[in-house]
# Entry
Amino acid sequence: MATLGIICVDDEGVVLEGLKEQLRRSLPSEQNCLIEVADTGEEALEIIQELQDDNIDVALVISDQIMPGMKGDELLVEIHSRYPDILKILLTGQANTEAVGHAVNEANLYRYMTKPWDEMDLALTVTEALRRYRQELKLAEQNQTLRRVNRELAELNISLEDKVKDRTLALEQANVQLQEAKSAAESANHSKSAFLASMSHALRTPLTAILGFSQLLCKDPTLGADQQGQLTIINRSGEHLLHLINDVLEMSKIEAGKMTLNVDTVQLPDLLDDLRGMLGLKADAKGIGLTVGRAAAVPDYVEADPYKLRQVLINLLGNAVKFTQQGQVRLTVTCVPDDGEQQWFTFSVGETGPGIAPEELGQVFEAFTQTETGRRSQKGTGLG
# Structure
């Protein structure tokens, strides 16, 4: 918002400073006003000229009537003759009717206020005057814009046929560019498919070797129980990664926002052991506890999409371990009350970390969106 100038004129210093202080106190900061004071009419005219030279519009002059030299009504009349857009308020307790009438008729007086004035009345009057001044400035700008637009329209009408031809040619060129862009997009799509196929092959080859050797090592009778357990985790994690690679290739499903639910039998004890094995080392390294368990009523086998269930639990537990600095993280599987047809189960992840603020809960399913805690950690992308 542009700065507007307000000039207060009075030969009594105490009155002048009081008026200035009241205006500063009552006008909101967003009004962006510069308040200047003068003790004579001649000085007020000089200040107006200086502000105009500095490209600051003077919106309002508040002047006392009884002053040595130039009287208040004479000052306002002179201001009106030089700067007719400036609003003017006559502020006095001793002005006669003739002086007030002179200011009203010859200076286009905005308001006459008597001394002593009411501070609230003064604040409302000045605020409304500034609003009116800004509104008139805006209308003047709009009128200027309308005149410019009309002038441009008149110029365009002079050579309308040429303009139509130019636009037609431009549209034809744009159509050619669109066709080229379409061809480029189709080519890029083919390249994307080729890239995904190549990437899949490149990832599958070493992953197949890893899975093969891990399966061979599992048959080694010289390995201890701990090593066998670690190899089992490696093997199942590799199989999970292989399934994710297959999902990457299903671009049509991803682009359509749909994924297929492949329900199978899941052995819960093995799944929970794998999760504990995969994330236990990270939790131990941070000095926090990680417990994975299930209620006694939860069976060993349930029906679910094993890969998607595993991925969800990895995401939840991984985030919990990442953001928990002390205490513990726990995964608990419990039964939901039977609805008479199917038995459902709840997988609950709890931790002693900072958690998610209530006002941020609505963001957890938005891709590439992190909570304040996640942003402070400078880790991750918000896809988990």
